[in-house]
Amino acid sequence: MATPSTITHKDREQMKAPDRFQMTAGQAATWVQAHRKQVVFLGAAAVVVVVVATAVSTMRAQNAEAAGAALSQAMKAMAGEISSVPLPGLPGPFYATEQAKQQAVAEAADRVRRGWSGTAAAHTATLAFADAKLRLGDLDGALAAYREYLVQGGPGDSLAFSAHEGIGLAEEGKGNLDAAAQAFERLAREAPAYADRADLERARVLAQAGKVDEARKILLGFADAHKESALTGEAAERLAKLGAK
After folding, report:
1. Other Cβ atoms within 10 Å of 33 Cβ, number
2. What count of other Cβ atoms lies within 10 Å of the Cβ of residue 158?
3. pTM of the full structure
4. Which residues contact 178 (CB under 8 A, 6 or more apart)?
5. 185-201 burial code (b ≥16 CB/10 A, e <16)
6. Stretch 198-203: mean pLDDT, rounded?
C-alpha cells in the first residue's frame, strides 16, 4: 500500500485539478463503501491513506497514458520524410531539411522528458532527444542526455548500447579521442551483442589518436574474438590500411 511519503509533489499538484480528483476520490469512496468491515479496523487515518493512494494510483496511470501519447508524437517526427513538398502516398510529416527534422524530434522528445519525468515514456524520450542533439551537432547537449539516460536506466537497460555508442561518437566529435575509445570499450563490455562493431569503432578512434599499435592489436585479434561476426572482412581491410606487422 502506498504511504504519504510516496506521494510526490507532482502528484499533489496534479490532484489539485478538481474534476479529476473528484473522479478518483469517488472511486476510492466506492471501495470504502464496499469494504466497510475492513475500514472499521483500519481506522480513520488509514482510510485517508487508502483514499489518497487510490486517487494517486489512478492519476499515475493517466499520467503514463498521456506520456505515451506525447512520445508517439516524437516517434512520428522521427519517421518524417525530408521533402520540401508533401509526397503522394506518404503520411508525413515532411521537413525541408534534415536539421529541421532533428530539431522537431528534439523539441517533441524534450516535451515528454520534461513534462512526464519518471515515466517509461520520458526515459525513452531522453534517448531520442540525445540522438537528435547529436545529429544537430550539439555535442554537449547530446552527452548530457546520453548520460542521463544511462543513470535512469541502470543495469540491464536494453537500449543502453545506443547511449554508449552515442557517447563515443559525441566525444569523438569534440576531439576527445581517448574518451571516445573508452566509451566504445564500455559498449563492447556491457553489450556483448555489439562488441564486434564496438571494437571496430575503438580501433578507428585509437588510430585517429595516433595509437596505431593499439588499433592494430584490436584488429589482429578481431577474427578470433568475434568468430561469427559479419564484420571480419571489414576489420581485415582496416588492418591492411594500417599496415600489419
Report:
1. 9
2. 8
3. 0.71
4. 209
5. bbbbebbeebbbbbbbb
6. 97
